[in-house]
Amino acid sequence: MYRSLDLFLSLVGLILFSPIMIVILIIGFLKNGSPLFRQLRVGYKQNNFTLLKFRSMSIDTKSIATHLIDFSNISLYGQFLRKTKIDELPQLINVLNGDMSLVGPRPCLPNQTKLISERKKRGVFNVKPGMTGLAQITGVTMKNPKILAKKDAEMIKKLNILNYFYYLFKTFFLIIKKK
What we know:
This protein is mainly alpha-helical and 179 residues long. Helix content is 52%, strand content 11%. The strands form two sheets. The chain has a two-stranded antiparallel ribbon with strand order 1-2. Helix 1 runs antiparallel to helix 3 (91-97). The mean pLDDT is 90.
């Protein structure tokens, strides 16, 4: 059932947000010639996939967790994209392709070994990674792998149709509130 919702909602999202995405693609292309950022992430059953985002950092930024990156690598334009979460919109393509769900644990990098280990212990890789989830709406980040893995596991245990929509709406309202 979640896959059907993911397909329908990601398709609707891509249609609704396509004008914004086209503008961001054009601006990104003019700014640095490379508007999309592709990064290897760990997904369902620990299989790697390529995550898509709009580029918010300089092209030569290392592929490490965001909380470890020097803030100066994020452009002013990139700060806007991140604050509004517009940088995440291309992940709707990942959802449409089946690499991700709209709701699930955020996918980590293959070099985040502590987080991978903690998630593996708790069965977090038994579900598809998502664009949002319990950790995102409660402010838990990848800075503490053990706490994040516990929060992810908690979300998975409690995930039902009501929570699926709760996480989506709560995320949307948190983004609006930040503006």
